[in-house]
Amino acid sequence: MASDKPLPFAYQFAAGAVAGVSEGIVLNIADSCDVNDDSPDVLSRPSADDALRYPLDVVKTRVQLQQGKGIGEEGYNGMMDCFRKIIKNEGASRLYRGITAPILMEAPK
Fold it and tell me: What is the C-alpha separation between 19 and 13, in angstroms, rounded?
């Protein structure tokens, strides 16, 4: 049974730290890829970065906002559990719901 209390600080801190570290890794990988920015076929770098980072932010936010411990079908026991449950119960496209606004903010750059 889930309580109405937020997760302890340590859990929220760990979720943010994992998301931050994994975001750094993704950005490092994206920067090391040889992308020809002059090619019209290639997505702009900000859009590609957003597409790689956005699922991590969705998972981090869900873990941080969950009330109580992750018990049962609705709760999350960690980042990987959250990824699995989102994909299994809602579909992979749910990880990208709402990505339009961040991509449009990066487009003018």
Answer: 10
**pLDDT tens across 71-100, in order?**
667 788 888 899 999 999 999 999 988 888
* 58-62: long-range pairs with CB below 8 Å, 24+: 58/86, 58/94, 58/95, 58/96, 58/97, 59/19, 59/83, 59/86, 59/95, 60/15, 60/16, 60/18, 60/19, 62/86
Residue 17's nearest CA partner among 74, 54, 64 is 64
Q: Is the dihedral of CA 94, 78, 54, 100 positive or negative?
A: positive
Taking alpha carbons only, the member of 26, 46, 61 closest to residue 104 is 46
- Are the CB atoms for 79 and 39 separated by under 8 Å? no
> DSSP assignment, residue 75?
-
Do residues 35 and 42 lie in contact, with contact meaning Cβ atoms separated by under 8 Å?
yes
Residue 14 token pair = 């760990």
